[in-house]
TrEMBL record:
<comment type="similarity">
    <text>Belongs to the GPN-loop GTPase family.</text>
</comment>
<keyword id="KW-0378">Hydrolase</keyword>
<dbReference type="InterPro" id="IPR027417">
    <property type="entry name" value="P-loop_NTPase"/>
</dbReference>
<dbReference type="InterPro" id="IPR052705">
    <property type="entry name" value="Gliding_Motility_GTPase"/>
</dbReference>
<dbReference type="Pfam" id="PF03029">
    <property type="entry name" value="ATP_bind_1"/>
</dbReference>
<protein>
    <submittedName>
        <fullName>ATP/GTP-binding protein</fullName>
    </submittedName>
</protein>
<keyword id="KW-0342">GTP-binding</keyword>
<keyword id="KW-0547">Nucleotide-binding</keyword>
<dbReference type="InterPro" id="IPR004130">
    <property type="entry name" value="Gpn"/>
</dbReference>
Length: 205
């Protein structure tokens, strides 16, 4: 097909363009178990229309996917989620959400490659689901913070008990959040940035 000079060129939407003042962009991963709120966090905090790869769950997943505690979930991420947030005039975070189901874990290496840091979301009803994410990030040398997503009706435990249950070292930040809220999700990312800065500073000393 010949190009028609009168037709406008298709490019990124104006709201998707990076601010002119941007000096640095970094990759951050949002990881965790199945149904813990990764897609919700990326959607809530992204300043651009997020890319999601959610598909409707079908009978093929029966007996394969563990729906304990998330029986009402009807969709699942099959590749990754992607969003963007500008933290200040100079720093932009690109957010990559990992798939939570074990049968899609083969995609993790590509998602976490090159990440500066990560957020591991956990649900107090299924704390054990956070261990695979933390293990993969530790193996990949990716520093992370842990955020407890406060689901309605989920049990609430003291931070010390959660640290013990998750076997978290003292230097790993543990925070609560509501992944549905922009301000709460942004605070989690700011906690991660402070953690990365403090870690880099202490290594330099």
């Amino acid at each position: 097909m010949d190009c028609n000079d009168s037709e406008p060129l298709i490019g990124p939407r104006h709201e998707d363009l990076l601010p002119a003042s941007t000096e640095r962009s970094v990759k951050v991963v949002v990881a965790g178990g199945f149904g813990v709120g990764k897609t919700t966090m990326v959607r809530s905090v992204s300043e651009i229309r997020p890319l999601t790869t959610e598909e409707t769950m079908t009978q093929a997943g029966v007996g394969v996917d563990d729906l304990s505690g998330v029986e009402r979930k009807t969709e699942t991420t099959v590749a990754m989620d992607f969003g963007r947030i500008t933290l200040d005039d100079r720093l932009v975070l690109y957010l990559f959400g990992t798939p939570g189901q074990q049968r899609f874990w083969f995609l993790w290496n590509g998602v976490i490659a090159g990440a500066l840091g990560a957020v591991v979301l956990v649900d107090t009803r299924r704390l054990e689901d956070g261990f695979p994410a933390m293990d993969r990030l530790e193996q990949g040398g990716v520093p992370f913070v842990v955020a407890v997503n406060n689901f309605p009706g989920a049990p609430v435990y003291p931070a010390s008990d959660l640290r013990s249950a998750l076997d978290l070292p003292g230097h790993v930040p543990l925070v609560g959040c509501d992944a549905r809220r922009l301000d709460s999700s942004r605070d989690v990312l700011l906690t991660l940035m402070r953690h990365l800065y403090d870690s880099a500073t202490s290594e330099a000393l």
